[in-house]
Amino acid sequence: MAADSQGNGDDRELLGHSDSPASAGKTYDSFNYPATSENINSLPGAHQGKVSKQQPTYAGLFDALRSIQLGDFGEVHKKPCTREGFLTGIGAGFGIGGIRAILGAPIFTACSWAVGAFVFGSFAMHEYCQQKRRMEKAGIQRINAALDEKKLELERKREEIRKARRKAKEEADRQKAGH
């Protein structure tokens, strides 16, 4: 009876767990970790699973400007999507400005086009990257929901197997007691 309550190797295989090195690191639980405050992909001020009853405060332009520190400029490359955005903007600015200069536009006009292409290219790539991240996050949430559902289904199957084993054992015990 103790073996039934703890399960056996078959139950572990049903849940996708195994002691073999090939399956190490492939379990659902390795992906289900809480976000830490050091995670740059977590939203600032977000609470993991907690609902705040406090109304959000809205910051104005001057509040935003006061929150900028000099050290923030040294870490801008660590923010998601900024590196891709800046590199795309630099390439677009260099390309468009260079082509305008080669085609005979005045230097000031070519530089204006370069700056405009930099701003537009940076903004467009940053938004594209953010959209990809949102879609990826939604996909991961769908996968986690499916894995949770699969885990519940496997747990139900495991419980059915346990019940069937208990019933078979009780039936065998009754037959032994009857003879």
Summarize this entry quickly:
The protein is mainly alpha-helical. The protein is built from six helices and no strands.
Give your account of this protein's structure:
The chain is mainly α. The protein contains six helices and no strands. Mean pLDDT is 79; it is low at 1-30.
Topology at a glance:
Blueprint: H1 2-6, H2 9-14, H3 61-67, H4 70-74, H5 82-102, H6 107-178
Helix pairs in contact: 5-6
Q: Beta fraction of the residues? A: under 5%
Cα distance spanning the termini: 22 Å
Q: Give the % helix.
A: 55-70%
User: Segments where pLDDT lies below 50 for 5+ residues?
Assistant: 1-30
- Structure annotation, total helices: 6
Mean of residue pLDDT values: 79
Principal-axis shape equals: elongated
Q: What's the order of the H and E elements?
A: HHHHHH
Structural class estimated from helices and strands: mainly alpha
The number of E-state strands comes to 0
Largest sheet: none
> What is the gyration radius calculated from CA atoms?
29 Å
